[in-house]
Design a protein that fits this description.
Layout (H helix, E strand, L loop, with lengths): L3 E7 L3 E7 L6 E4 L4 H11 L5 E3 L5 H4 L2 H8 L3 E4 L11 E3 L4 E4 L2 E7 L8 E5 L4 E5 L2 E2 L2 E2 L7 H12 L6 E4 L4 H11 L4 H15 L7 E2 H7 L8 H6 L7 H13 L2
Parallel strand pairs: 3-4, 4-5, 5-6, 10-13
Antiparallel strand pairs: 1-2, 2-3, 7-8, 8-9, 9-10, 11-12, 13-14
Helix pairs in contact: 1-3, 4-9, 5-6
Length: about 260
């Protein structure tokens, strides 16, 4: 990994992320749920903040922006499609664009579904994907604006990344997500093992974020909606992948 990745707990169950290149001193922040933990982390490490990347417009991902900008003067980058409901952007981004983070180019992916205009950042050399509320640890974001078909398309973009990719999602929802996953695949050995590992981590007050994509592919019911045996388990053996995903998302909404 070229960059040092720091996971910062914020609010009740949010995460922000810092990526730092020691050689250049460049530091990038992704999402700003609240200012104080982020500014404290920067100060403790002696890092200067060079830019802020925003994944989507929800207040629990941007409400700390004014205070962080006041303290650091860092420019803000975010989705062009979301610009009307984000803080003022120094640069508006769309899928296919890239962002320089130290020595590395981060690729911008449109992962709409939770919201329209939600973006993710993928760093292929460091093997990091900052997915916020699209692909989440053990789950995916609720479909507040997009359709199931749109979210499925977004998840498949992320599922195609290398299995060792670190998925940096926006919340500590893993315990509940895995409990729901067990209602779909109760006898999945990887899920059983992961649930025990997560329980231990949370008992020790350790984050379960980030996670490896390989672990998501083995346990996350939303990514596994395309598997024939999962379709059979939910009583939809002949469903399309997107239809099976929609059914699982609907069940999670009521869980």
């Amino acid at each position: 990994m070229l960059l040092e990745l720091v996971t910062i707990p914020c609010l009740k169950d949010n995460y922000a992320f810092l990526m730092h290149d020691d050689a250049s001193g460049h530091t990038t922040l992704v999402d700003v749920p609240e200012a104080t933990p982020i500014l404290n982390t920067l100060a403790a490490r002696g890092w200067h903040l060079d830019q802020i990347l925003l994944t989507h417009h929800h207040s629990d991902h941007i409400q700390g922006v004014p205070d962080v900008v006041a303290a650091t003067s860092a420019p803000i980058l975010g989705a062009r499609a979301d610009a009307h409901r984000l803080p003022p952007l120094a640069r508006a981004l769309a899928e296919g664009d890239s962002v320089q983070i130290g020595p590395e180019q981060a690729q911008v992916l449109d992962v709409s579904g939770h919201t329209l205009g939600h973006i993710a950042f993928y760093l292929p050399v460091s093997g990091i994907a900052l997915t916020a509320d699209s692909l989440m640890t053990g789950g995916c974001g609720r479909l507040l604006e997009g359709t199931p078909a749109l979210m499925w398309q977004s998840l498949m973009k992320l599922a195609a990344l290398p299995g060792e990719t670190l998925i940096c999602s926006g919340h500590e929802y893993t315990t509940t997500n895995l409990r729901f996953a067990a209602t779909i695949e109760s006898d999945n050995p990887a899920l059983i093992a992961r649930t025990a590992k997560v329980a231990k981590a949370r008992a020790e007050n350790r984050p379960t974020v980030p996670s490896r994509l390989s672990g998501e592919l083995a346990t996350n019911p939303f990514l596994r909606a395309r598997l024939p045996h999962v379709k059979t388990l939910i009583g939809m053996p002949d469903a399309s992948d997107a239809e099976a995903f929609a059914e699982i998302r609907s069940r999670k909404d009521k869980f």
